[in-house]
Amino acid sequence: MKTSIATTLLAAASYAAATRVSYDTVYSDKSLSLTRTPCSYGSNGLMTKYGWKNVGEIPTKYVGGSSDVAAWNSDKCGQCYQVDYNGKTIHMLAIDYAGNGLNIAKGGLDELTNGNAYYIGVIDATVTKVDLGSCLTGSSKREATFKA
């Protein structure tokens, strides 16, 4: 059986598009201080840029870790991700490091898996970097944009 180069490249691109997404209940804790994450202070820190001190002050539904956040004060702190899985979509704001892919609040994985995060644990989803406004809710979109 012969396989064309285009078919091989397409298959590789499809495989590479899948990103590992897991969950951690720590990101559901609204009192979680950003000082416990690499995205606290520094020129790229969320406390510095927006004045957010804990998860509950961030005007977004879901936060979590990303493997793009490589170190303290990473320029990827505050990156918004769109996560698509089986026809469902959520947005997640990066506040922490993740070893592989994304590690999100349990509620986010529950939303993607119809309440089955605990049973499934890890999924392979399509993840896209999007603008910060996609993650923020309400009037906070405008405030965060002006502070940036």
Secondary structure: elements and pairs:
Layout lengths: L4 H13 E6 L22 H5 L12 E4 L13 E6 L2 E10 L4 E3 L1 H7 L4 H4 L1 E9 L9 H8 L1
Parallel strand pairs: 1-5, 2-4
Antiparallel strand pairs: 1-6, 2-5, 3-4, 3-6
Organism: Teratosphaeria nubilosa
Subcellular location: Secreted
Protein name: Cerato-platanin
**Tell me, what's the shape?**
globular
Radius of gyration: 16 Å
| Count of alpha and pi helical runs | 5
Number of strands: 6
Order of helices and strands: HEHEEEEHHEH
Helix fraction?
25-40%
Q: Return the domain count.
A: 1
The chain-level structural class is: alpha/beta
Nearest-integer average pLDDT: 87
Unreliable segments (pLDDT under 50, ≥5 consecutive)? 6-16
The CATH topology annotation reads as: Barwin-like endoglucanases
CATH architectural grouping: Beta Barrel
Distance between the termini: 55 Å
How would you sum up the major sheet?
Answer: 6 strands, mixed, barrel
Adjacency order of strands in the biggest sheet:
1-5-2-4-3-6
- Strand residue percentage: 25-35%
In CATH, the homologous superfamily goes by the name RlpA-like domain
CATH class: Mainly Beta
